[in-house]
Amino acid sequence: MIKSAAKRFYLILIFILLYAPIVTLIVLSFNSSKTRAKWGGFAGKWYITLFQNQEIMNALYTTLIIALVSALIATIIGTAAAIGVQAMKPKFRTLTLGITNIPMLNADIVTGISLMLLFIAFRFSLGFKTILLAHITFNIPYVILSVLPKLKQTNKNVYEAALDLGASPVYAFFKVVFPDIMPGVFSGFLLAFTMSLDDFVITHFTKGPGVDTLSTKIYSEVRKGIKPEMYALSTIMFLTVLVLLMLVNTAPDKTDVLSSGQIEIKKKHKLSRFIFRKVVPTAIVIVIVAGGFFYGSHNSAAGKSQVIVYNWGEYINPDILTKFEKETGIHVVYEEYETNEIMYPKIQSGAIAYDVVCPSDYMVQRMIENNLLAEIDFDKVPNIKYIDKPYMDQARQYDPENKYSVPYLFGTVGILYNKTMVDEPVDSWGILWDKKYKDSILMQDSVRDTFGVTLKYLGYSLNSTDLDELEEAKKLLIEQKPLVQAYVIDQVRDKMIGNEAALGVIYSGEALYTQLENPNLEYVIPKEGSNLWIDSWVIPKNAEHKENAEKFINFLCRPDIAKMNYDYTTYSIPNSEGRKLIEDKALRDNRITFPEPEDLKNCETFKFLGDENDALYNRLWREVKSR
Amino acid sequence: MSNKLIDIVNITKSYDENIVLDQLNLYIRENEFLTLLGPSGCGKTTLLRILGGFEAPDSGDIIFDGKNINSLPPNRRQLNTVFQKYALFSHMTIAENIAFGLKIKGKTKGYIQDKIRYALKLVNLDGFENRTPDSLSGGQQQRIAIARAIVNEPKVLLLDEPLGALDLKLRQDMQYELIRLKNELGITFLYVTHDQEEALTMSDTIVVMNQGYVQQVGTPEDIYNEPQNAFVADFIGDSNILSATMVEDKVVKMLGAVWECVDVGFGKNKPVDAVIRPEDIDLVKPKKGIIQGVVTHIIFKGVHYEMEVLANNYELLVHSTDMFPVGTEVGIKVDPFDIQIMQKPESEDEEAAGIEE
Fold it and tell me: Which regions span the lipid bilayer (chain A) (predicted)?
């Protein structure tokens, strides 16, 4: 009695552990409050807003159509392959099966990258087609695997009997063999459909701009912070997969009927046959047709001229894109990346012909050096006149003739200090070496930023590659180490707001935000100079819509547009006319956002130093950190 | 019996290195019940599959009704096969199964209906039209398989061990059923089995095969009473195969004694094999026998007793309706025409290939 109760308890415990995360998600999807910390009552509103979100609906349709088409094609190819494999001699059969199974066991990321490389090698431009091909590829083994056992069960004589009775091989196959293996084919199809629906990694590598499946969409949304709609969407996906799996497992199985032969099972058999013959195909057709109409009606612009934009995440006001489309009639295909290092190989590979990209200073230089950029025709970008001269001059550090890039947003690195803890005036990096502030100093946990600060303090260039200078900087950093409370990145902001430290190295964009939260904080660009970073628009050499790209850049240089962007991103705009449009005087005259030219006197932008020097920097940084 | 319907000329077939049929020649007459009999692996099923068109011979010709059908695919041959495992279409009803071939031939609905009813009646399964194969017993399924084949009115029906999966009683019933069917339909049956009793019961002609060679062709009586070699003798029924010496025509030396027989033409003092069927050995009083022996084993078999008799260091198998308890001393007599003399093969391969037609 106790034993069985314990057993049951154990079982329940396992189920709770297994399903707790999903249940949490489902519960939260019905939470009417936007934050997950608070229960605001039961509501289905996220499901409604979900279906009103055009992008998500597009992604949903793309997902379904890819899952459907790839599963269908994979089912046809896989079934044919299974028949071929079955007809092989045992030795070859084992070998072939082994080969077809490898992609299934292979890590998704390997499959994804190799497919991407293959597509690039064959000059396929990444997009809908390549996702479809990739999905077909990884789906085929699943179909083979579920069809083959059915084929093995099938009496070979049945096919021969049909031939014997006068059927042609094709007729015999469809009339006699196919009905026998049908359950296997169908569960193969469902399995392939589910796998395709489920896939993120392979899709991520093989997709192109403007095409998103639900999983990649969710991923990119999550980067910006999870919205409750995502809970709703994930819930729907979970339920869909659940239903599909249940269908796979209850697919009509002949052996069931054989073994029991009961009428009840016969009925079930008939019912599932009805589901498989009528309901499922109908549902598929409805999805394709309805989705097609929906998709078509919202993407009528897709066929027209377009511009493919590749930008940092959350780095533009979305209203600008709509406005641009409305004013020019050019459709914007918009794609985001997280770091320069993720963006660079994509451009270099040429897999996707992006029209306009927004790299940072040193990356612009690297792209110019590697001959990846096209010269911008400035006759087509008259609004370049709104970009302030100091920034065009700074840009010469990485684009010496101002031929390839147009500054977009910029910022500086400086010292954030707490006025209640630091009495003396702060104007030099030297204060970071002041023993008074032991354990109250926060440094950036990033090699170039930290070395840059130190090199500047020593009066050297922050792009120094001189070993002696670097060794000197290293020594200084080791000396400073006992004073440093922590090497962190994002936490500089939080710790400073929370009065946990007196001094910290920080980016100007974040400094502004900390001041709003804690008025005791002050930001300064030390007199020795600092890093001025500039992100600029460039046009890759392989851009297919160069003129549209120039129109897009020109549009962004317009003062009113620059101002819209400032409102959204709060990053500094190198556009005085735009700055004048900012309503709030305090913001307009904020010296953190809009430093005076004298503040920038000694500032430099980072340069790409080459792989060898990168390695040198990293080695020295490790030596500092390991002390 | 009329003219040749199928002529099998010099058929050779091998899988990888393994020769299954070697230069095989055989003909089948119209309206004949011919049985291919042999142990598994003797090539009988392969031969049937070549006739059905499911396998292509490496060399040789199949002449059907005067035409070479080597390259004709199975669906265009005028013969139908009944498979060992029935091979019914499980997702179709019985009626749909039977109608399969007729539909392909484009027969009218009425014709098909009539044929289904006729065929079901023929195999004693009236009213089974709407059943599914799964709901039928093995014997019923096999009869449906036969019905499905015969509605197409083939010239030849090929049957591949069709009764192999049935139990003994059912098998015997089906044997009579098949004979009746063959007589009613008047078509040629080519039957494959490894069961000698089945072959003896049903066939007009039996072809005994071993290792890809035809061993003997003849009526059931020929095959049983006058096996041409030790393999046939051993395979068909029980028999005593003894090493012997042909002293001269009609005189053979075996079991340490000299016996009178009816065979001639083996030469003088030649080693031969002698076959004696167990039921042909007469057990008599010790003094009345040509040699003497002791009963070492006895089993009651119903119709007769099966005994082992030790005589001159040979174990003889004897079937007799008289009972001799173990230990009884008996005399042994065999009538001259019950001794069958055969050439002695020198090796196993020669044994298989030894006597061709």
Answer: 9-30, 59-85, 105-124, 130-149, 170-193, 230-248, 275-296
DSSP H/E element including B246: strand B240-248
- Residue B52 lies in domain: 4-225
Q: How confident is the model at residue A218 (pLDDT cuts 50, 70, 90)?
A: confident
Packing angle, helices A228-249 and A2-29, rounded to 10 = 130
B85 assigned to some structural domain: yes
Number of domain units in chain B: 2
Distance CA(A335)–CA(A212), nearest Å, equals 10
Torsion of Cα atoms, B70 then B71 then B77 then B79, to 10°: 30
A183 in a structural domain: yes
Q: Which of A158, A171, A258 sits opposite B87 (nearest CB)?
A: A158
Residue A224: predicted pLDDT: 62
Same domain, B201 and B282: no
Taking contacts as CB-CB distances below 8 angstroms, the residues of chain B near A186 are none
Q: Which two tokens stand for residue B36?
A: 């291919």
The sign one gets for the Cα dihedral A232, A235, A237, A239 is negative
Phi, psi of B294 (to 5 degrees): -125, 135
Q: Is residue A44 part of a domain?
A: no
Same domain, B186 and B268: no
ipTM value, please give it.
0.79
Which structural domain, as residue segments, surrounds residue A12? 1-32
Given B52, B85, B89, which is nearest A164 (Cβ)?
B52
Residues B207 and B289 in one domain: no
Contact criterion met (CB < 8 Å) for B101 and A166: yes
The answer to whether residue A47 is domain-embedded is: no
Nearest one of B111, B183, B173 to B142, comparing CA atoms:
B173
Residue by residue, DSSP assigns A145-183 as HHHHHHHHHS-HHHHHHHHHTT--HHHHIIIIIHHHHHH
Q: Please determine, for residue B351, whether its predicted confidence score (pLDDT) is greater than 60.
A: no
Residue of A nearest to B145 (CA): A161
The CATH number of whichever domain residue B149 belongs to comes to 3.40.50.300
Say if residue A134 is in the same domain as residue A281. no
What letter represents residue A255's amino acid? T
Q: Which of B192, B225, B258 is the last residue of a domain?
A: B225
Residue B261's contacts (CB-CB under 8 Å, 6 or more residues apart) are B250, B251, B252, B274, B336, B337, B339, B341
With a cut of 70, say whether residue A142 has pLDDT above it: yes
E strand or H helix that includes residue B234? helix B230-235
Cα–Cα distance measured from residue A325 to residue A333, given in angstroms and rounded to the nearest whole number? 10
Specify whether B157 is located in the same domain as B305. no
Task: Tell whether B63 and B157 lie within a shared domain.
Answer: yes
Q: Are B254 and B332 in contact (CB under 8 A)?
A: no
What pLDDT is recorded for position B308?
92
pLDDT confidence band for B96 (50 / 70 / 90): very high
| CA-closest candidate to residue A565, choices A353, A311, A332 | A311
Give, in degrees to the nearest 5, the angle at Cα A158 between A156 and A164. 110
Helix or strand (DSSP H, E) at B252 = strand B251-254
Q: Is residue A606 situated within a structural domain?
A: yes
Q: What's the whole-number mean pLDDT along residues B172-178?
A: 85
pLDDT digits (tens, 9 = 90+) for A280-338: 667 777 766 776 666 555 554 445 588 999 998 778 998 999 999 999 999 898 888 87
Q: Do A532 and A519 fall into the same domain?
A: yes
Among A164, A171, A179, whose Cβ lies nearest the Cβ of B81?
A164
**The total number of structural domains that make up chain A:** 4
User: Is residue A378 located within the same domain as residue A515?
Assistant: yes
Whether A165 and B89 lie within 8 Å, measured CB to CB: no
Q: Nearest to residue A195, comparing CAs of A104, A289, A284, A130?
A: A104
Is the CB of residue A157 less than 8 Å away from at least one CB of chain B?
yes
Q: Are residues B258 and B218 in the same domain?
A: no
Is A342 in the same domain as A197?
A: no
pLDDT at A272: 63
